């Protein structure tokens, strides 16, 4: 029996049907990369389809299903499409992008699009499975806070992890793990509700939550799971991991190993973004493969596939489950609201996700949990006095200083930060002025806050080139191993210093100074309409880093965080 496609008017596709005719001319090889936990179900269904005679237009289909961590495929896709994802490293040299990708979450598709992959437009993207994101706690710990009878919220968890004697919470790196990201989004939303968004109280709560999670973070899910207590001894329970955002499937799989202490799955409100396993046909594949992929998708939406999912502790896309599913205690079921794990629109997928919220969460996490050495350089030329219409009339200078001050609150004491200002002839014939030297925040935070508060615009012009060269030499001079050494420069104009070095002289000197063994990353944030993007990019192309330009100065706070988060890992 052969499987063939049936097209209908308008280009939509119905299911698949069995047609007589065992003969095929040629073969289509469809490569499918899936998240590891769903791979057995997809492979089983695809193998059965092929055994039954899968074909498109008389051409046989072979399906190669590989088990691939979502972050690894995301890195390969990002590399191919020129995107940069916060916290995601470079793709391995052997990484190959598949024809069809089934990551564990649509958040990967959103991050790729918002990370610069403008040409990344996968087709389909509909969910083929679902696993709610839960907070996993050792059952004795869960019982102490009211499980399974008490209905708990993310605000309750926030209180537990930031208390004077906190619950030891952990997380898989949310920039690399979709369940970790979902938990982070829910917890930071709970923190922001403690005050007005962006208020000192809300930011303090958010930073406290991030630091609490970062203490017990892990880059690998199995490493995090190994930190849960492995003995019923009270000391072991007290010293073990107390809570972590994981998928329902993670908890079921963990408990199936019959550990000494089982994990409870807490389904907190508001419902976090579930893992939704989108079926993404990647752009650029040939039409015959795209046709084969459309039929395979229908194979993965049948009742039989729901039972295959159940065997892997996964739900169907609507939140219901197939035969043999072993639900955790307290799990929402088809009878009592299991489908409530579906987003409100009922559609799911990337369309229901907020790219801004995801970007803010990943960048804030990266800034708050990494360590670095940075010189912050702020333009104080006369044009910085201009009012910003979208900031209630505050000047460009005030908006810039406010963004830097808010960012300062996210950096922990392991950071070393210094502060310069620049214009023209700021100190005699020198264009720059050092307000605070580069020192650890453990002893420097107060000086930086006072330095930022003292900044006022001058009447000078923009001495960009001389300042950039001096800043580069300064950061390179006391380069610190194990950290990203960087310059972050804010400016609202192009170089206007007739008495300084030329652009060519600056670039020539930077090329001579650059040392691949001791790199200095340069991030330039251009503000307003007078900046010259090409001028800024000519610098960062030599040094490494990046130039970010916004015509709306009120947006520089989020750009500042994004710029810091997108820096490469510190050299080892």
Automatic annotation (TrEMBL):
<feature type="domain" description="VWFA">
    <location>
        <begin position="373"/>
        <end position="564"/>
    </location>
</feature>
<feature type="region of interest" description="Disordered">
    <location>
        <begin position="319"/>
        <end position="356"/>
    </location>
</feature>
<dbReference type="Pfam" id="PF13531">
    <property type="entry name" value="SBP_bac_11"/>
</dbReference>
<dbReference type="InterPro" id="IPR036465">
    <property type="entry name" value="vWFA_dom_sf"/>
</dbReference>
<dbReference type="InterPro" id="IPR002035">
    <property type="entry name" value="VWF_A"/>
</dbReference>
<dbReference type="Pfam" id="PF00092">
    <property type="entry name" value="VWA"/>
</dbReference>
<protein>
    <submittedName>
        <fullName>VWA domain-containing protein</fullName>
    </submittedName>
</protein>
């Amino acid at each position: 029996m052969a499987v063939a496609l049936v097209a209908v008017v308008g280009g939509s596709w119905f299911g698949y049907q069995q047609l007589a005719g065992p003969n095929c001319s040629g073969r289509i090889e469809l490569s499918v990369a899936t998240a590891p936990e769903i791979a057995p179900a997809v492979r089983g269904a695809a193998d059965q389809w092929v055994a039954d005679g899968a074909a498109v237009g008389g051409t046989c289909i072979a399906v190669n299903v590989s088990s691939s961590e979502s972050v690894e495929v995301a890195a390969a896709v990002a590399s191919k499409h020129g995107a940069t994802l916060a916290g995601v490293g470079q793709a391995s040299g052997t990484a190959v992008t598949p024809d069809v990708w089934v990551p564990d979450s649509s958040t990967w598709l959103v991050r790729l699009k918002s990370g610069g992959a403008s040409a990344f437009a996968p087709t389909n993207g509909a969910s083929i499975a679902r696993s709610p994101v839960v907070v996993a706690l050792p059952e004795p710990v869960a019982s102490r806070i009211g499980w399974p009878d008490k209905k708990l919220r993310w605000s309750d968890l926030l209180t537990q992890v930031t208390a004077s004697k906190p619950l030891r919470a952990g997380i898989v790196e949310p920039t690399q793990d979709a369940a970790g990201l979902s938990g982070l989004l829910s917890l930071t939303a709970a923190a922001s509700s403690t005050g007005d968004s962006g208020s000192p109280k809300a930011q303090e709560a958010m930073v406290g939550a991030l630091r609490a999670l970062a203490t017990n973070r892990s880059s690998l899910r199995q490493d995090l799971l190994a930190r849960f207590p492995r003995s019923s001894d009270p000391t072991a329970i007290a010293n073990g991991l107390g809570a972590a955002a994981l998928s329902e499937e993670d908890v079921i799989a963990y408990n199936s190993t019959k550990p000494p202490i089982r994990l409870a799955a807490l389904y907190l409100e508001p419902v976090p973004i579930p893992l939704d396993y989108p079926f993404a046909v990647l752009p650029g594949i040939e039409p015959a493969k795209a046709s084969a992929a459309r039929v395979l998708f229908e194979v993965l939406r049948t009742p039989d596939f729901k039972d295959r999912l159940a065997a892997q502790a996964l739900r169907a896309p609507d939140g219901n489950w197939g035969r043999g599913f072993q639900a955790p205690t307290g799990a929402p079921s088809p009878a009592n609201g299991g489908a409530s794990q579906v987003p409100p629109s009922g559609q799911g997928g990337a369309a229901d996700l907020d790219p801004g919220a995801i970007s803010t969460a990943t960048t804030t996490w990266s800034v708050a949990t990494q360590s670095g050495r940075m010189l912050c350089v702020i333009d104080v030329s006369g044009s910085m006095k201009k009012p910003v219409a979208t900031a209630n009339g505050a000047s460009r200078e005030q908006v810039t200083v406010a963004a830097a001050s808010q960012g300062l609150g996210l950096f922990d004491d392991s950071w070393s930060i210094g502060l310069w200002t620049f214009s023209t002839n700021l100190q005699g014939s020198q264009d720059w002025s050092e307000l605070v030297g580069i020192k650890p925040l453990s002893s420097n935070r107060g000086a930086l806050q006072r330095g930022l508060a003292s900044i006022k615009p001058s009447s000078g012009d923009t001495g960009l080139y001389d300042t950039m060269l001096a800043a580069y030499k300064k950061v390179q001079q006391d380069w610190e191993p194990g950290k990203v050494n960087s310059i972050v420069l804010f400016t609202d104009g192009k170089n206007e210093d007739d008495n300084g070095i030329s652009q060519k002289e600056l670039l020539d000197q930077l090329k001579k100074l650059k040392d691949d063994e001791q790199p200095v990353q340069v991030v330039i944030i251009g503000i307003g309409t007078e900046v010259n993007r090409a001028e800024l990019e000519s610098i960062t192309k030599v040094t490494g880093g990046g130039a970010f330009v916004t015509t709306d100065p009120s947006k520089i706070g989020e750009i500042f965080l994004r710029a810091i988060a997108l820096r490469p890992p510190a050299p080892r």
